[in-house]
């Protein structure tokens, strides 16, 4: 991982205060350089990483060589009250059965009367049988402010909270409750492109599960930020071991020994991610050169049904144990590969605005017009390599860059990897001269001449015009490192997620695939007629089933 990504000019990263140390370590190992605001121009960076959200102006002024690690308005699914509203709306629109993976939520204090009615009704119909509830602050993380209750007299709060039915029959490992932290990368919202990482974390409570003491956070909550202070955190717990985390690989080994349909379980978890992100699809604007890493917390109950607990914004990337090191360093490396940096991105404004074909910035020694992800070199999969390269190269041709008063070299990357390799002997960059223009970024004519800014270090975003609406329009690769493409999974979902997304059509495709997989996984119920029907996952897509150690093709699972 320590090899430099470009032997001519390094990529530059910029970290906001509080950014995870592992991000800095991984980028430095890859040969990047850290941004220095005293020595470098304001826009002279390739990646800006921060744990908090960006300002609206950051999205409006993003330049073609830059990437941001957040999409705007992600609170639509990461705030618990917003997610609850979206879930309720989708249940109404598409049926509660499709969205039965999230317990109904009441947003208090506004919906206290509604909750009181449900609570009273349940007490009457259950004939005194206990029903447990969980209360969570809508905007806090790391388990802060969460408590359980059975009697409504114990419901006390001083801020906006949500109350949900507590899933009181979780799957246990040697008596300990656990949940799954699934890492999800949303590369784009228009079109919707979702990747799920093969490696994740299994987070354990450090006290054995019991309903006799609802006040015991160490037996009911799995947050590491809480359990690392438990008395049994460092003890060697039966089967769980020391600490409170497993890797997903270790969990797969455990699951393989259980009497459960593993493939169907993995697909149901993948469905939860897709259907959850669909709830906020109409609310999140399209932003080029952005991606989002989310942490989905999934609970599996005793009947092996997966439940969505919450969606985490800027999931913790701290290194608390060996499992963290194993999972998170590989995760960050794969995220960087997903960002699709091109050769000219190394030189930032110089690479796009520098005049003259003799410039070394515009004449790299290798024939690719972009940087291949490290995973391209690490795998022998021909189809996977082709999908990564074709996606990256076709994306590169979608941008056009125009200077304010100079002509500019324009890089035309090949559409297919074969075309690239055929031209290894030739000059890989064809330069086209564009007429100079004095139009602003919005192509509005300027009639007022202004003196240069006193802040000479500042890069003006209007200096480089590019067609941001053409970004992320090429069929994404089915796998990048350990990231598996889970959406779109066929041409129908790809088409339906473009521009004004057709959520109804997408939900219909998801429903059809789920039914087909459920039938295919159950050999006793499969019929010749069903197995001969088209599964809708063929065409130019070769999607994989996320979850298993060696992900099979979806088409194989459905045949």
From TrEMBL:
InterPro entries: TTL/TTLL_fam
Coiled coil: none
One Pfam entry name: TTL
Keyword annotations: ATP-binding, Ligase, Nucleotide-binding
SUPFAM superfamilies (alphabetical): Glutathione synthetase ATP-binding domain-like
PROSITE patterns noted in UniProt: TTL
Keyword check for Cell membrane: no
Alphabetical list of Gene3D superfamilies matching this protein: ATP-grasp fold, B domain
Residue numbers spanned by region Disordered: 378-402
Domain of life: Eukaryota
Keyword Cell membrane included in the entry's annotation: no
Entries under PANTHER family matching the protein: TUBULIN POLYGLUTAMYLASE, TUBULIN POLYGLUTAMYLASE TTLL2-RELATED
Protein name: Tubulin polyglutamylase TTLL2
Organism for this UniProt entry: Cirrhinus molitorella (mud carp)
């Amino acid at each position: 991982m320590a090899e430099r990504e470009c032997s001519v000019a390094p990529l530059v990263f910029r970290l906001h205060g509080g950014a995870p140390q592992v991000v800095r370590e991984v980028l430095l190992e890859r040969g990047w350089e850290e941004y220095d605001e005293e020595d470098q121009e304001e826009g002279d960076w390739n990646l800006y990483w921060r744990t908090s959200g960006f300002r609206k102006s950051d999205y409006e002024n993003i330049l073609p060589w830059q990437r941001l690690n957040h999409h705007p308005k992600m609170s639509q699914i990461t705030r618990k009250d917003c997610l609850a509203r979206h879930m309720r709306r989708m249940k109404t629109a598409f049926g509660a059965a499709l969205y039965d993976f999230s317990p109904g939520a009441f947003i208090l204090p506004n919906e206290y009367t509604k909750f009181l009615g449900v609570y009273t009704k349940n007490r009457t119909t259950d004939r005194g049988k206990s029903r447990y509830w969980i209360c969570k602050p809508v905007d806090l993380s790391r388990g802060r402010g969460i408590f359980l209750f059975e009697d409504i007299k114990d419901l006390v709060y001083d801020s906006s909270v949500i109350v949900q039915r507590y899933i009181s029959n979780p799957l246990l490992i040697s008596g300990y409750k656990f949940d799954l932290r699934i890492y999800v990368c949303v590369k784009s919202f228009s079109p919707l492109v979702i990747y799920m990482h093969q490696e994740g974390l299994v987070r354990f409570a450090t006290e054995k599960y019991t309903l006799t003491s609802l006040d015991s956070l160490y037996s009911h909550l799995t947050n590491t930020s809480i359990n690392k202070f438990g008395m049994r955190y460092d003890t060697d717990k039966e089967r769980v071991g020391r600490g409170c985390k497993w890797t997903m690989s270790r969990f797969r080994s455990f699951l393989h020994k259980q009497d459960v349909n593993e493939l169907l379980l993995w697909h149901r978890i993948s469905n939860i991610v897709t259907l959850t992100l669909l709830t906020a699809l109409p609310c999140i604007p399209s932003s080029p050169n952005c991606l989002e890493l989310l942490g989905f917390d999934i609970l599996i109950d005793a009947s092996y049904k997966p439940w969505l607990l919450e969606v985490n914004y800027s999931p913790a990337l701290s290194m608390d144990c060996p499992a963290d090191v194993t999972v998170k360093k590989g995760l960050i490396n794969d995220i960087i590969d997903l960002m699709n940096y091109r050769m000219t991105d190394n030189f930032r404004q110089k690479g796009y605005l520098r005049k003259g074909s003799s410039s070394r910035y515009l004449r790299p020694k290798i024939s690719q017009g972009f940087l291949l992800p490290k995973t391209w070199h690490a795998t022998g999969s021909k189809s996977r390599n082709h999908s990564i390269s074709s996606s990256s190269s076709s994306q590169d041709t979608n941008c056009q860059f125009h200077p304010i008063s100079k002509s500019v070299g324009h890089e035309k990357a090949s559409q297919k990897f074969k075309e690239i390799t055929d031209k290894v002997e030739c000059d890989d960059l064809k330069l086209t001269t564009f007429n100079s223009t004095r139009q602003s970024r919005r192509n509005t004519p300027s009639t007022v001449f202004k003196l240069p800014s006193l802040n000479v270090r500042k890069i003006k975003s209007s200096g480089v015009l590019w067609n941001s609406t053409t970004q992320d329009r090429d069929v994404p690769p089915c796998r990048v490192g350990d990231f598996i493409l889970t959406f779109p999974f066929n041409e129908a979902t790809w088409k339906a997620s473009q521009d004004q997304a057709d959520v109804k059509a997408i939900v219909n495709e998801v429903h059809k695939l789920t039914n087909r997989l459920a039938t295919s996984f159950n050999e006793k119920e499969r019929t010749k007629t069903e197995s001969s029907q088209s599964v809708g996952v063929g065409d130019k897509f070769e999607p994989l089933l996320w979850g298993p150690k060696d992900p099979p093709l979806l088409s194989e699972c459905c045949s």
